[in-house]
Each structure stands twice: as structure tokens, then as C-alpha cells.
């Protein structure tokens, strides 16, 4: 790939070329084969386009930094194929891509179905913790626990072949791409934008889904104008696999009846979307009226008198990304009138300025921070920043090397206490859940 070129996605088409295109987006850890049972019926009315996430199903391992990045790659892939308008159905992470498309490129979407989706998937801490586990233990613990997240107990027991297929699907995913997808979900939060979704939308969820269940589905329906809800009984998170017939029927009915036509001009001609994706147009406003003669407009505020941008918002964002929402929330809850100024100082200066500087990446800053904390004997803070180092991408072996280096330059007694603290934190953070 040439520098600056958008990566494309691994894909396949099924169905006659003359039919309108319907895209099926996969869940994290799955491949396009999760939709196999829907394809025969859907291809009677649509040309079905399926894609794999980066590093999934043998796709090139080019990690995506965000859900928006995945949407951009999907559009780049479609552009190369001459597909400008389509229906879209996505499961979980695939559903997040669908929401992103509806918010950023509504002119491309004719209709939308969100399956096992949410405007915010759990908490950022949960997904970054999953990344720590994968970075330390590989994908095997996540793969072995996948059936518990994806299927009801009865289905998993009755369908051992499908259960094993699910485990192997996760095991064969590229770990780096899986971790990047976890980071993408950690930063995904479109709750404030749901009211801007103007595409006919079906929200579909399994009644037994413990990952993104009926409560999350109702949040989507409440936020998206005129969205409809469908709850599939006896299904968990990977509902298209567990209840394929019910999901297929719901998708056929939705896309058959809620396919939004292209807008027309005042002359009745259909407006075709441009070859390249376009941002949503701003709402039309009335033309400005002529100003009264000799009216004096307020003088603009000179740029030089405006103060520097406030770094608090940047600081709190970086602080949460590095230390985790739960830790920062505990600090803020304990903040009172006496400590408020200190917390403002730390957030603005340490996190909004120093940690956000581009000169060092976060892995390197974690190495420096751990060493400084060992030298100062600040073991409580060392525990916090050992967790942060794992979230920033350091492995336990790399943290060990940092502490060995610190032992030479900071002293063995200081490093001895640091090893005890770090060992406990690493055990807690990297042990897969039962």
C-alpha cells in the first residue's frame, strides 16, 4: 500500500449483479461466515456484500484505529467496486460501523439494521482490559469464553460443531487487530448523535443477550427517530447464528419495506450520490436580509486578547484513556473544595500538557513514569501506573525489564518493593475471567 492510501477490506459478493446491494457487517472476532445462513434468502432480492474486519478470517492485518476508520475503509472498498448506495445490516461492531455511516454518510445508506448493537459498548475500561488480556495471554482465553458471550447455554450444548467453529474463528484472528478493535469500541460513544440518524432503521436483539441486550436496543430505538425494535426470543449475542430463520425473516421484511429512495430535485430528477463520499449537508437557512443603512456591527474580539485554549478537557480525556474511567471517577468523587484546585492542576498540567505532548508515545511515557516512581518510592502510584502501562501496550515482560533497569539506577531495596506491587497488579490485570 502506498503511503497515505486508505486500506481496503477483504470482501465477497453473492447474488445477481443487477440487484441493489445489501451489506452485512460482522461482529468482533467473527468472519463473514457468521451470515452464511442468511445469504440464500437475501440474494433473492439483493446482491449481498460481506466483508471481514482487519486481521479476521485471513484478511490483511492492518489494524483500524477507530470505528470511523473501519467505515472509511468500507467506503473506500465500495468506491473501488462502483457501489455508491446500499442497505446495511451490522452485528455488534458491525452495527457500530452502520451507525457511523448513518451519521457521517447518510446519502450512501438506503436502509439500516442494527443487530446486537449499542450506542456505547459497555465501558472503555472493559474493552481496554480485554486488550491487556490478549496482549499477555494471546487470544486463547477470549476464544474459549466466546461461546458463553455469544450463545445461550442450551444452544451451545446442542450445537457443539457451531460452538467449536466459534472458538476457532476467534483463535485464528490476528491479536494486534483484535486489540485495535477493542480500542475502537472503547472510544465509541454516539449517544449524543442518535437523533441525527435519518435512515429507516430496524434495531434487532436477542432476548437473552448479556453483552448488548434489550436495554441497549431500547436506548437505540429511543434515540433514533422512527426506529423499530425486534426482540428475538431464545437468542443471545450472535443472534444471526443462533436464530438464523428469525433474523433472515426480519431483515427481508425490513429491507423490503423500508428502502429509502434517492432524493429528487424540484424537476423530478433523481440525485445520484457522487463517486466519493460526501459529508452531510448543513440544513438550509433563509438568505440573509440586507443590513440597515449605517448600522455599526460589533467589533470582533482581537485574536491576541483571547486566552490560550483550556487544557482541562484534553487532560481529562487523556487521564481516562491512560488510567481508566473507574480510577478517574473514584478520584473525582473524592474531590472536594480543598482538593479541587490540585486536581485541576494535575489534569491540566500533567495530563493535558505533558502526557499529551507528541514527542514521546504513551508506551515510552509509561516506562519513564514507572522508573521515576520507583526512584521516589511512590508504591501506591506505582500500582496505578503499572495498570496504565498495561493499557498503554507494555507487556508484563517489558514492565519487568523496566524494573530491572530501575534496580540498577534506583537501588535494589526500592526495586524490591516495586516488584511486589507490580507482580500483584499484573496478576490481577492479566488473569482471564473464569
Short description:
With 434 residues, the protein is of the alpha/beta class. The chain contains 18 helices and 7 strands.
Would you write up a description of this structure?
- GO terms for molecular function: 4-carboxymuconolactone decarboxylase activity.
- Keywords: Lyase.
- InterPro entries: 4CMD/NDH-1_regulator (IPR052512), AB_hydrolase_1 (IPR000073), AB_hydrolase_fold (IPR029058), AhpD-like (IPR029032), CMD-like (IPR003779), Decarb_PcaC (IPR012788).
- It holds the Pfam family CMD.
- Its EC number is 4.1.1.44.
- The chain is α/β, with parallel strands linked by helices and 434 residues long.
- The protein is built from 18 helices and 7 strands.
- A 7-stranded mixed β-sheet has the order 1-3-2-4-5-6-7, with helices on both faces.
- Helix 4 packs antiparallel against helix 8, helix 12 crosses helix 14 and helix 15 packs across helix 17.
- It is elongated and about 70 Å long.
Amino acid at each position: 500500500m502506498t503511503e497515505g492510501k486508505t486500506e481496503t477490506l477483504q470482501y465477497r459478493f453473492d447474488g445477481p449483479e443487477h440487484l441493489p446491494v445489501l451489506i452485512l457487517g460482522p461482529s468482533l472476532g467473527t468472519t463473514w461466515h457468521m451470515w452464511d445462513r442468511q445469504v440464500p434468502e437475501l440474494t433473492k432480492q439483493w446482491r449481498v456484500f460481506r466483508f471481514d474486519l482487519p486481521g479476521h478470517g485471513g484478511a490483511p492485518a492492518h489494524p483500524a484505529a477507530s470505528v470511523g476508520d473501519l467505515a472509511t475503509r468500507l467506503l473506500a472498498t465500495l468506491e473501488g467496486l462502483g457501489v455508491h448506495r446500499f442497505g446495511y445490516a451490522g452485528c455488534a461492531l458491525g452495527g457500530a460501523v452502520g451507525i457511523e455511516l448513518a451519521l457521517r454518510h447518510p446519502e450512501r445508506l438506503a436502509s439500516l439494521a442494527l443487530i446486537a448493537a449499542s450506542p456505547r459498548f459497555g465501558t472503555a475500561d472493559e474493552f481496554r482490559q480485554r486488550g491487556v488480556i490478549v496482549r499477555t495471554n494471546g487470544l486463547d482465553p477470549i476464544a474459549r469464553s466466546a461461546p458463553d458471550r455469544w450463545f445461550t447455554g442450551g444452544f451451545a450444548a446442542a450445537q457443539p460443531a457451531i460452538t467449536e467453529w466459534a472458538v476457532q474463528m476467534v483463535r485464528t484472528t490476528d491479536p494486534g487487530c483484535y486489540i485495535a478493535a477493542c480500542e475502537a469500541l472503547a472510544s465509541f460513544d454516539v449517544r449524543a448523535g442518535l437523533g441525527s440518524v435519518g435512515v429507516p432503521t430496524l434495531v434487532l436483539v436477542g432476548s437473552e443477550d448479556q453483552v448488548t441486550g434489550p436495554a441497549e436496543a431500547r436506548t437505540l430505538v429511543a434515540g433514533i427517530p422512527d426506529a423499530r425494535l425486534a426482540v428475538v426470543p431464545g437468542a443471545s449475542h450472535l443472534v444471526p447464528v443462533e436464530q438464523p430463520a428469525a433474523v433472515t425473516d426480519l431483515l427481508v421484511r425490513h429491507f423490503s419495506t423500508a428502502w429509502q429512495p434517492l432524493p429528487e430535485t424540484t424537476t423530478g430528477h433523481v440525485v445520484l450520490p457522487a463517486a466519493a463520499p460526501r459529508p452531510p449537508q448543513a440544513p438550509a437557512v433563509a438568505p440573509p436580509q440586507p443590513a440597515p443603512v449605517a448600522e455599526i456591527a460589533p467589533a470582533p474580539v482581537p485574536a491576541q486578547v483571547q486566552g490560550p485554549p483550556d487544557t482541562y478537557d484534553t487532560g481529562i480525556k487523556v487521564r481516562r484513556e491512560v488510567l481508566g474511567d473507574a480510577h478517574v471517577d473514584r478520584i473525582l468523587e473524592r474531590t472536594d473544595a480543598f482538593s479541587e484546585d490540585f486536581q485541576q492542576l494535575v489534569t491540566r498540567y500533567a495530563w493535558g500538557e505533558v502526557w499529551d505532548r507528541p514527542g514521546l508515545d504513551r508506551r515510552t511515557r509509561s516506562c519513564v513514569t514507572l522508573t521515576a516512581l520507583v526512584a521516589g518510592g511512590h508504591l501506591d502510584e506505582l500500582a496505578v501506573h503499572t495498570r496504565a502501562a498495561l493499557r498503554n501496550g507494555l507487556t508484563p515482560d517489558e514492565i519487568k525489564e523496566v524494573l530491572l533497569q530501575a534496580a540498577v539506577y534506583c537501588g535494589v531495596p526500592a526495586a524490591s518493593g516495586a516488584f511486589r506491587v507490580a507482580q500483584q497488579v499484573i496478576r490481577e490485570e492479566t488473569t482471564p475471567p473464569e
